[in-house]
């Protein structure tokens, strides 16, 4: 999938773990195409500084050139809100799978999926088709 600009939605610990997975991929140019988004007033100055210190752009409005998104927060209600916001702007859910994980291909195709290092599954799980994307719920 060709990615214009990927927006990682969230700036807390979960988002920084998602950035770790992105950094483990072979596409080193990805950092320049990745932006971290948080709603105004929703994150601490320290969390924003940790994102910026890693070399990522940190914004409080979705970039005009964004094409894909990953909701990177643990709170399910906030994940849904971020997915709704992104998809209302025409963004598509991205997928990122750590090269240090072992999961079946069918699982890897779920929109909005993030697979962290060490994740393993010998067979597709019952939630393999459940996605963060609001499109999957339709």
Automatic annotation (TrEMBL):
InterPro entries on file: PglD_N
Protein name: PglD N-terminal domain-containing protein
Domain PglD N-terminal: 5-83
Gene3D superfamilies: 3.40.50.20
């Amino acid at each position: 999938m060709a990615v214009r600009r990927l927006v990682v939605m969230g700036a807390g610990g979960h988002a920084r773990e998602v950035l770790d997975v992105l950094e483990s991929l072979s596409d080193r140019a990805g950092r320049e195409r990745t932006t971290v988004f948080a709603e105004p007033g929703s994150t601490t100055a320290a969390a924003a500084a940790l994102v910026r210190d890693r070399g990522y752009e940190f914004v409080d409005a979705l970039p005009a050139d964004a094409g894909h998104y990953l909701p990177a927060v643990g709170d399910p209600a906030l994940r849904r809100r971020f997915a709704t916001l992104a998809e209302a702007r025409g963004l598509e859910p991205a997928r990122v799978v750590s090269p240090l994980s072992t999961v079946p291909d069918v699982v890897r195709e779920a929109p909005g999926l993030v697979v962290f290092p060490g994740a393993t599954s010998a067979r597709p799980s019952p939630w393999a088709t459940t996605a963060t994307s609001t499109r999957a719920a339709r």
